């Protein structure tokens, strides 16, 4: 078949390969996925919300709707944005099919073939894949525990005038779990303004904070049109419903409406109304507290076990939220090569290599702490620690 040139750049992700290995070895303790714990889904409350929607509003729930999304839900999202320090209204909000579509369609709005995106190093694999679809490349900016380093960002902005977009995950980053400091957020916005570039702020994990206090969002620091903010209900309600959003300047939203219409006409009406009814009928904050309580306990347990089971050479930080712990091992350890042996011993992780835009580092692993039960976390980390010690 004569596929488009853009297909040449796309290959199956390593994560899918890891998932296949896990599926072939039932009983594996998996720290690999990035899924929310399904036991925390509010199944019964969602059933009631769905019943209510279909009883009272079936005709509109099953009909076509607006390209930018269901207005009452956009109003509620404007309320969530206020927690991020952004005063906004429905005209600045568009609903998307998960925040993945927000990334992909934002890229579609801006990127011509041959252009580049500036990303953290490492960054979220799904976004890297989405950018690749547009026949673009990425330039990774040196990043540490506080975010992108402004000196390196500025050098790359100067060197790459064709880099229109800067893609960042400032809260509990996937894969590192890191949160940007306020100073780094301010420096990022100042540079985007100075060089007239657009920041894509991916806040998929923003509501999953269990330590410390909220840092103002990058969008809240935007003096004008430089930040496109993306949020999602996937990590805090249900990823299967596929409801995410964009909050941006009206100029962006108007263009976004055109590409969204061309892509899939509109977000799914019933899913939006289910989320809206859930938020209407339930205490969302209480639900968030339940999730955060469980994830915090699992994070603590994982870190505690790592402290005893991992060698001193393994370096990692304490994420204040989200779902991931990022571990860096001495540079000679190849974590991709180590994985088959780990799976043989009944434990899985994602090798860090996939998350580096240039796939140029092989010594990191991403551990997910949101899905495994406590006893499995302890057992899995002990097995992994023993294997790492052998490889040193
Ligand atoms: C950083 C980040 N952004 C976006 C997404 C996409 O999430 P969704 O499309 O389900 O909202 C994910 C999912 O894992 C993620 O980790």
Overall description:
The protein has helices spanning 14-24, 43-61, 71-83, 98-110, 125-132, 150-159, 182-194, 250-264, 269-281, 284-309, 335-344, 374-391; strands at 29-30, 93-97, 116-120, 137-141, 143-144, 147-148, 163-168, 198-202, 227-232, 243-247, 315-316, 324-328, 347-348, 350-351, 364-368. It has 392 residues and is α/β, with parallel strands linked by helices. The protein folds into two domains: 12-42 and 286-391, Aspartate Aminotransferase, domain 1 (Alpha-Beta Complex), CATH 3.90.1150.10; 43-281, Type I PLP-dependent aspartate aminotransferase-like (Major domain) (Aspartate Aminotransferase, domain 2). The longest helix is centred in the last third of the chain and has 26 residues, at 284-309. It is globular, with a radius of gyration of 21 Å. The mean pLDDT is 96. Bound molecules: pyridoxal-5'-phosphate. Pyridoxal-5'-phosphate binds at residues 34, 98-100, 124, 126, 169, 174, 202, 204, 232, 234, 239, 244.
Which ions, cofactors or small ligands are bound in this entry? pyridoxal-5'-phosphate
Annotation field: number of helices:
12
The name of the CATH superfamily of the largest domain reads Type I PLP-dependent aspartate aminotransferase-like (Major domain)
Reading the helices and strands in chain order gives HEHHEHEHEEEHEHEEEHHHEEHEEEH
- State the major sheet: 7 strands, mixed
Instruction: Report strand %.
Output: 15-25%
How much helix, percentage-wise, in residues?
40-55%
Strand order of the main beta sheet, please?
2-10-9-8-7-3-4
